[in-house]
Design goal:
Layout (H helix, E strand, L loop, with lengths): L1 E6 L3 H14 L2 E7 L5 H11 L3 E5 L3 H14 L4 E6 L4 H10 L3 E4 L4 H17 L10 E6 L6 H13 L6 E5 L7 H4 L8 H6 L9 H4 L1 E3 L2 E4 L12 H14 L2 E5 L6 H8 L3 E6 L3 H16 L6 E8 L7 H8 L3 E6 L2 H10 L8 H13 L7 H13 L16
Parallel strand pairs: 1-2, 1-3, 3-4, 4-5, 6-10, 6-11, 7-9, 7-10, 11-12, 12-13
Antiparallel strand pairs: 8-9
Helix pairs in contact: 2-3, 6-15, 10-11
The protein binds adenosine-5'-diphosphate (ADP) and magnesium ion (MG).
The site of magnesium ion has 6 residues, from helix 6.
Length: 402
Amino acid sequence: MLKGAIICPDEELSEKLEELLTGLGVVAVVRTVPRYPTGQELMRMLRAHGPQVLFLSIESLSRALEIVAAAEAQLPGLQVIAVGRNADPQTLLEVMRSGIREFVSLPFQRTTVCDALARVKEILDRRPVHLDSTDLVFTFLPSKPGVGSTTIAVNAAVAVSRQPEQRSLLVDCDMNSGMVRFLLQIENNYSILDAAERAFQMDENIWPQLVSTVGGLDVLHSGRLNPESRVEPTHVRHILDFSRRNYKTIILDLSGNLEKFSIEAMHESKRVFLVVTPEVPSLHLAREKIAYLRSLDLGDHVAILLNRCQKRSLVSPAQVEELLGQPVLMTFGNDYQGVHKAMTAGKTVDPGSELGRQFAQLAQFMLDRKATAAPEKKRLVEYFSLLPQSVSLFAPGKKPAS
Ligand SMILES: Nc1ncnc2c1ncn2[C@@H]1O[C@H](COP(=O)(O)OP(=O)(O)O)[C@@H](O)[C@H]1O
Ligand SMILES: [Mg+2]
């Protein structure tokens, strides 16, 4: 399947196109941008999603051409298919003159779109998109402190690093209660603050001094408690630019305070894992965070991880989904002993335990190896039979935004 992105300010046009593409099953639309993005937004989108084909509205041909130029520079080999409402001769001529070879217009015909995609695929087979930086950047965001976001981030990062040929990086971005250094017993005194200070001069000589290697995982911890510390969004962007070229997978553990630099990190991420527990305060704050992230156009980056889930949880995964208005990607068991034992030994949770296997499954998902959540789904059904469906956690009228 080709990875596609749509940039189209015309909502109706965009919806029609996406509908057709979904039906065709040749392109997976990884991102839809309902406006012409700024240069920076475009870069972020291309880096985070690494599309192979871009469907670009020519509503404003001049804006579209600026985007083509910038996109080709960032992602050589990216194929562009122009999209418009009309195929009048004047428009066609302008598109052809601009150098865009493919054009589809309303009413979208299956065969026309299929033919264009076949030509695009042939070019991509001969000359694949060259992405010299990874798109595998993931952020972990707790709905509320203590839900287990860091625990999952650390264990998933180690599970990723156990896979062959996975140079992976874990960055602790929690400047007030960063736990990664303690959890992995890291001695190095350099931290993300030192990386931020040197962000603009980062190179292959400075970097190895800043990170510590634990097994196959490089770790940049958050240093000592330092509420005054200032990490700016530009620092994060530079650190990520450098890291994307040097690692295959990058995992950022966020505090949950939604600092500006955290928002930047989420914009740069392929997925934002919002970690929740089946408890009212955690779910309440998760809903607020989801609404906020949606307002920042980050909604489709968010995937829910349900932690500390027990058969006897008062709120079932199905109810969590209902409350949050989106599916739970994976659930993780409650294993206090396993987590405690690992923590006191400075190790990760036993990979042979059930929780350890769940972390490995998340790692597979992150690496796009589609270790699907099928067993988890089975578990959902189990919960259905255990619990009444109508437990209401929020006052009437406070239904989750859909
Ligand atoms: N699946 C789990 N089962 C049992 N305890 C857990 C689990 N996940 C996390 N914990 C515990 O919960 C506490 C908070 O975890 P932490 O990862 O620091 O949360 P956060 O990063 O969301 O603030 C820790 O004591 C941790 O050991
Ligand atoms: Mg944490």
